[in-house]
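REQUEST
  id: r-88c1
  op: predict_structure
  target: Nuclear transport factor 2 family protein
  payload:
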Amino acid sequence: MHDTRPPLPPFTEESARLKVQAAEDAWNTRDPEKVSLAYTEDSEWRNRDLFINGRAEIVAFLTDKWARELDYRLRKELWAYTGNRIAVRFEYEWHDAQGQWFRSYGNENWEFDDNGLMRKRYASINDVRITADQRRIAL
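RESPONSE
  id: r-88c1
  status: 200
  body:
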């Protein structure tokens, strides 16, 4: 029995928007185990300059990420969709242990299996230093 994660491909505009919102909501929990369940057991990622394979590596990556990126808050926006693929743009804000705030911008390309689990995630991300009063995403 395979896990399923609706909505399932092929995506419509409505189902793609729901998938993007579900991803945003999950990542904003900052719970690596919960987030990892949206990906296939052998999911392939490229995140900046890192290549990550499988749920165990996803959990390790997210655990480390959210230990460094404090008070992380994310917003995602549907950019395009077709069949079993979705492209999003996103931004998130966070601060480091010294209190320096950042806004990180990026794009992701996602590919899903027939059960709605993400099997590929390719992310390009850039960070910009901001001051606390420049924040746009509330905690």
